[in-house]
């Protein structure tokens, strides 16, 4: 029996790499059912000020094809509490680069009142979509 019933994580998942795979695999090891929010192109443009290389429709199809993912859903905004109200997960998984961030400190307080945990996974060092893009440009 796994520690959690329903887990949730999110990402852009542009230029899918081993860091993405690591977080999905570790999340699935801890929950029976894993829901993954994939950021829409509009959301990425709004908060990162850039256009993903791979269009949303293809990114969500890639994420849906990963054996650790039970369901992929669009992430249209960054409001994780609103996502919880809709999806009712009991744990959210996120990279430890967000630990201590004011947004997540507040979210931890709100989730704690609802019995929802946030589990921080170690960030996979030396790999990111930005690094992949830089290598391609060389």
What topology, given as strand order, has the largest sheet? 3-2-1-4-5
Distance between the termini: 47 Å
**Can you count the beta strands?**
5
Kindly name the structural category. alpha/beta
Helix content: 40-55%
Q: What is the arithmetic mean of pLDDT? A: 93
The residue ranges in which pLDDT falls below 50 over 5 or more consecutive positions are none
Q: Mind explaining what this structure looks like?
A:
The protein has helices at 18-30, 41-48, 56-64, 80-87, 102-114, 129-137; strands spanning 4-11, 31-39, 71-75, 91-95, 117-121. The protein is an alpha/beta fold. A 5-stranded parallel sheet has the order 3-2-1-4-5, sandwiched between helices. Strand 1 (4-11), helix 1 (18-30) and strand 2 form a beta-alpha-beta unit. The mean pLDDT is 93.
Short description:
With 138 residues, the chain is of the alpha/beta class. It has helices at 18-30, 41-48, 56-64, 80-87, 102-114, 129-137, and strands at residues 4-11, 31-39, 71-75, 91-95, 117-121.
Label this structure with key terms:
138 residues, alpha/beta, 5-stranded parallel β-sheet, 6 helices, 43% helix, globular
Summarize the helices and strands and which ones pair or pack.
Elements: E1 4-11, H1 18-30, E2 31-39, H2 41-48, H3 56-64, E3 71-75, H4 80-87, E4 91-95, H5 102-114, E5 117-121, H6 129-137
Parallel strand pairs: 1-2, 1-4, 2-3, 4-5
